[in-house]
Amino acid sequence: MGLVLKVKAGDRVVVNGAVLRNASRNQMIVEIENQSDVLRAEEILAESMASTPVRRLCHLIQIAMVSRDDRATLFPRIYEAIAELEAALAKSQGQTLRDTRALVEANNLYAAYRRLLPVITYEDELLALAAVAPVKEIAS
């Protein structure tokens, strides 16, 4: 059995770069029987929401998922973004980022994207802490 998608009336799904919209009034059930890049509408990260390093990486991975022709130029940018995040988050998220790199290398982009979701949560927690932390003066 392949991947079964249940698409609500009016919802969109991206399969191998093609944007499909359920134009009926009923739920559409589709089974994808082979290896395909699939994004459901609720998973798509708009460029305007890619405002942090991890979210920008997720956005790059999503672009690669829907635009196979651009992968040759996107993959180096994805690897660079992973390396930058590894340098900053090696102790806490290093294994997750190495897993993400391996998934990208294996061309399993959806799994790579999903693997980064806990890192987004971690990044959000760090940014929230930074927003409330008092700034210490540096003695001159």
Concise structural overview:
51% of the residues lie in helices and 15% in strands.
Record keyword descriptors for this entry.
globular, 140 residues, alpha+beta, two-stranded antiparallel ribbon, 3-stranded antiparallel sheet
Mean pLDDT: 89
Task: Give the percentage of residues in beta strands.
Answer: 15-25%
Strand order of the largest sheet: 3-2-5
What portion of residues is helical?
Answer: 40-55%
Quick one: how many beta strands?
5
Order of helices and strands: EEEEEHHHH
Spatial gap, N to C terminus: 67 Å
Number of discrete helical segments: 4
Biggest sheet, open or closed, and with what strands and sense?
Answer: 3 strands, antiparallel
Ranges where pLDDT stays below 50 over 5 or more residues in a row are none
Could you say which structural class the secondary elements and strand pairing correspond to? Answer: alpha+beta
- General shape: globular
Please explain how this structure is put together.
It is a single chain. With 140 residues, the chain is of the alpha+beta class. The protein contains four helices and five strands. The strands form two sheets. Strands 3-2-5 form a three-stranded antiparallel sheet, covered by helices on one side. The chain has a two-stranded antiparallel sheet with strand order 1-4. Strand 2 and strand 3 (18-21) form a beta hairpin. Helix 1 (53-66) packs across helix 2, helix 1 (53-66) packs antiparallel against helix 3 (109-115) and helix 2 (71-105) packs across helix 3 (109-115). The longest helix is centred in the middle third of the chain and has 35 residues, at 71-105. The radius of gyration is 18 Å and the shape is globular. The termini are far apart.
